[in-house]
Amino acid sequence: MSFQVETGERVDVRDVTAEVAAAVPADVERGVCTVFVPHTTAGVVVNENESRLRADLTRALDSIVPRGDGYEHDAIDDNADAHLRAMLLGESVSIPVADGSLDLGTWQSVLFVESDGPRTRSVEVVTTRS
Fold first, then answer.
1. What's the short name of a Pfam family annotated to this entry (predicted)?
2. Degrees (nearest 5) of the Cα angle 106, 47, 128?
3. β-bridge partners, 96
4. pLDDT at position 82, please?
5. Measured between alpha carbons, how far is 114 from 14 in angstroms, rounded to an integer?
């Protein structure tokens, strides 16, 4: 199953937990849900969905991989920082499933991280039974 995420900023962090949870079949007693972002300038992480932490993430990405820092790839399309940020974040996460639900910790959420927006992005969700 897949769903779309609309981003409004160049760097944008969106909570997609509800959309991912809706894609998990209710009859899966035990399994693993894989969330995959098929884009080279966006990523997905599991962490707390708190506004200051989302701002801190954006700030940290800006600090670690600043835009326009003389990257070779910028000669092609001026978004090397977005590619590098996505590589650091990762393109997928795996989440345990128990009784048809994501088995996340109390403060954990699935966060989609855009690094080259605004855009419309796809997120793929696959649940396997164990």
1. YjbQ
2. 80
3. 32
4. 98
5. 8
Tokens matching residue 63:
């600090």
Q: What is the pLDDT of residues 75-84, one digit of tens each?
A: 999 999 999 9
Both structure tokens of 119? 């855009």
Instruction: With H, G, I as helix, E, B as strand and everything else as coil, classify residue 83.
Output: helix
Q: What angle do CA 16, 3, 102 make, to 5 degrees?
A: 45
Both tokens of 59, joined, read 């700030």
Domains in the chain with CATH codes: 2-129 (2.60.120.460)
CA distances from 45 to 30, 72, 83, 108 (A): 22, 27, 16, 10
Helices (H), the chain: 17-22, 51-64, 74-77, 80-89
* Cα gap 97→59, rounded to integer Å: 32
Please give the structure tokens belonging to residue 64: 């670690």
C-alpha angle with apex 127: 14 to 110, nearest 5 degrees? 20
